Amino acid sequence: MGKPHSDSKVTGLTGGEDEFSSNIEDARQATGEERVRAFMKITADEKDLSKRNWMTFILPHLELLSSDTSDSAHPKVLFRHSVKPEHCNTLGNMHGGCTATLFDFCTSSVLALVSRPGFWAFLGVSRTLNVTYLRPAPCDETVVIECEIVQVGKKLCTLRGVMRRESDGTLLATCEHGKVNTDPPVGKL
Amino acid sequence: MGKPHSDSKVTGLTGGEDEFSSNIEDARQATGEERVRAFMKITADEKDLSKRNWMTFILPHLELLSSDTSDSAHPKVLFRHSVKPEHCNTLGNMHGGCTATLFDFCTSSVLALVSRPGFWAFLGVSRTLNVTYLRPAPCDETVVIECEIVQVGKKLCTLRGVMRRESDGTLLATCEHGKVNTDPPVGKL
Amino acid sequence: MGKPHSDSKVTGLTGGEDEFSSNIEDARQATGEERVRAFMKITADEKDLSKRNWMTFILPHLELLSSDTSDSAHPKVLFRHSVKPEHCNTLGNMHGGCTATLFDFCTSSVLALVSRPGFWAFLGVSRTLNVTYLRPAPCDETVVIECEIVQVGKKLCTLRGVMRRESDGTLLATCEHGKVNTDPPVGKL
Amino acid sequence: MGKPHSDSKVTGLTGGEDEFSSNIEDARQATGEERVRAFMKITADEKDLSKRNWMTFILPHLELLSSDTSDSAHPKVLFRHSVKPEHCNTLGNMHGGCTATLFDFCTSSVLALVSRPGFWAFLGVSRTLNVTYLRPAPCDETVVIECEIVQVGKKLCTLRGVMRRESDGTLLATCEHGKVNTDPPVGKL
Fold first, then answer.
1. Span C131-156, pLDDT tens digits
2. Dihedral in degrees, nearest 10, Cα atoms D145, D150, D152, D153
3. A15 φ, ψ to 5°?
4. What is the rounded CA–CA span in Å between residue A46 and residue A2?
5. pLDDT tens digits, one per residue of D93-151
6. What ipTM did this prediction achieve?
7. Nearby residues of D36 by Cβ (< 8 Å), 6 or more positions away
């Protein structure tokens, strides 16, 4: 696990992906969807238990289905997630904290579609995460998570995610995620 | 893991604690703080990996410090949590989804101080969980989580939590949690 | 101005439209869009200054453009609003409180598309109103407000609104509005 | 009404108080509470109907009761507001949009306690305004609004407000208000 990153200390918020953005030369060549996959891989590649992180029990069950940048103002990414016992409460439904975790990760990943050195290359850090729970996601259900950029500027962005039952598309939960850019000025890279 | 509870199917929301409330006769005799501890114990007692749940990696590091019902309109519970690697992002700070999970669990537990058969005995289910991240909680930090009931009625309640650095009380994050009561009418118990 | 309605006292929340729903026999025959217009007319028909209400300076500039119930799970209503000096802050942009007021009213009106005796006939009362401001709406701008039902049940609903610049469709603000049904049981009507 | 301010165009958000901050020399000498009163006076001094603004029907009924900077991390301001017919819905309770407007204005005013050239001198602009309605505020009720700074940095701040019935202190509504600093660098003033 990397040591706390000075920028995030400055901004004083959670999140950020240092391996991801330290690897910024590669990211420069990658397509947006390749950067989304890189973000997932880096977070998942923590086999060493001492390096186990909060996403360890999510990522093996989360799959990137597609990305869509046809609307340049509102790029989108679609994920599929299988609800396993370790994601549930004692009642057998996905835990509200797991839903929030999925939304945090999946909405952040959309930023990889537009990130470039100095512009969300670190995918920013969370300021607000507002989740609304509409219907339960029972254990063994498969859900799809549609994420999009609502607005992105130099300092702030607003992301949105909706979770649906894959079988019939019924809405299960929605999320609005506000993030803050933590990139150092490009000159300093 | 208990089978999905019919009431939560009706209300179509997440959460609820069936073992907790099925044990309602005992809960009736217990003090509020005993019910908070019962809520924590039931959620933690899932040693069998097949019964592992979303709270498995949180509860060993979460401690109930005190409860306060002196203000009957706004009962409070205070928790301490030690931030471990498994709670963190790849950057070494507590993951925003872990912060949300802690707030979901800790604010819900305050309802155990006022629950009775027919009135939040199941601790309800989440409708909204809004978290604001102010400063990072680095790995190995110890945080305290103060939770209180903002308002509780027959159908709805609003709970609030604030997370502070234990060492100096600096605010790290805040949460507002809206829940819905799922208790069956008492007559039907 | 109607005297406070006992149900809203019980639920202890804001809003509701008593003349609208007291007139429930008419509402029964009306189409959804006719009910939306009835909701607007009742709120606007307060010429007597002593009956002036919070919407007095909004409704002359708010126009219902269309409604769409083709997706029965997510009915929609589209409004147009002209930003006048009385809607602005001293800087000459629409005041955040005016944006919130427009979202409160316009999202509530969508419920008129599905309301029936005992089911949101009073259009409910607000529990939460969360607005995110993305770009300013300058005085003399014309905006369109798209509102939809995200989820509606017997007790609760979640509504969403987005405000766009009419000229080019740029997103200016978004809103999530949580309401509570206050209808008395139909038998008691 | 001032012409749209270039900074707010850049940040693309609502609000800001240009007369307030153009008068920055005076503000420099003023105490925090004097700056709060200056903010209220500037907003209220729009007798000319053509200059009527969104606060016109609020400010005659809003009174600054006190400010408290004893906790330097969380300065507070206390207001009293009398609920008049023009603040209400057709049901006779304060309109949710009026509650949101009061919270927007009152929480913003707390920033005047800490503002200085380059640091929230313009009181920033709103990014998020989240209001939770707990109980109605009937016409002719008097309410008190307690506002505090939850966290303030160079770019962002989070403010909180709670509205209580003055007669018995019962909570009626709560608000979290996220703002963005729009000050130009001090050198450029």
1. 999 999 999 999 999 999 999 999 99
2. -160
3. 90, -155
4. 11
5. 999 999 999 999 999 999 999 999 889 999 999 999 999 999 999 999 999 999 999 99
6. 0.84
7. D64, D67, D77, D109, D110, D112, D113
Q: Is the CA virtual torsion C29, C35, C38, C39 positive or negative? A: positive
> What is the least distance, in Å, from the CA of B60 to any CA of chain A?
15
Contact partners for chain D, using 3 or more CB pairs closer than 8 A, are A, B, C
Find the CB nearest C156 among B127, B130, B153.
Answer: B127
Give the gyration radius of chain C's Cα atoms.
16
Q: Which residues of C65-104 are buried (b: 16+ CB within 10 A; e: fewer)?
A: eebebeeeebbbbbbebebbbbbbbbbbbbbbbbbbbbbb
- Cα dist. B64→B152, B167, C78 in Å? 22, 17, 50
First and final C-alpha spacing in chain A: 22
Read off φ and ψ for residue D153, nearest 5 degrees.
-120, -165
Chain B nearest CA to D172, separation (Å): 9
Q: For residue D177, what are its two tokens?
A: 């208000």
pLDDT tens readout for residues C37-86 = 888 887 776 555 556 789 988 999 999 999 999 999 999 999 999 999 99
Task: Round to whole Å and give the CA distance between D2 and B36.
Answer: 56
Tokens, residue C107 = 């999202």
Q: Distance between CA B157 and CA B159 in Å, rounded?
A: 7
Tell me the residue type at C79: F
Q: Count CB neighbours of B128 within 10 A.
A: 24
- CA neighbours closer than 13 Å in the CB half-sphere of residue A37: 10
- Looking only at the bridges linking them, the beta strands covering B14-15 and B125-133 are antiparallel
Query: What torsion, rounded to 10 degrees, do the Cα atoms D48, D52, D58, D61 define?
Result: 10
Per this entry, what is the length of chain D? 189
For B126, the token pair is 């989440």
Count CB atoms within 10 A of the CB of residue B38.
Answer: 18
Task: Quote the pTM value.
Answer: 0.85
- Write down the residue that tokens 């009507």 correspond to: C189
- Tokens representing A52 are 């186990």
Provide the token pair at C39. 């909701």
Q: Does domain D55-188 have CATH number 3.30.1600.10?
A: no
The beta strand positions in chain D, using DSSP E, are 14-15, 62-68, 76-82, 125-133, 142-152, 156-165, 171-180
| Residues in chain D whose Cβ is within 8 Å of chain B | 73, 130, 132, 134-135, 150-151, 158, 160, 170-171, 174, 176, 178
Domain map of chain C by residue range? 55-188
DSSP summary character for residue D58: T
One-letter amino acid for residue B160 of the chain: R
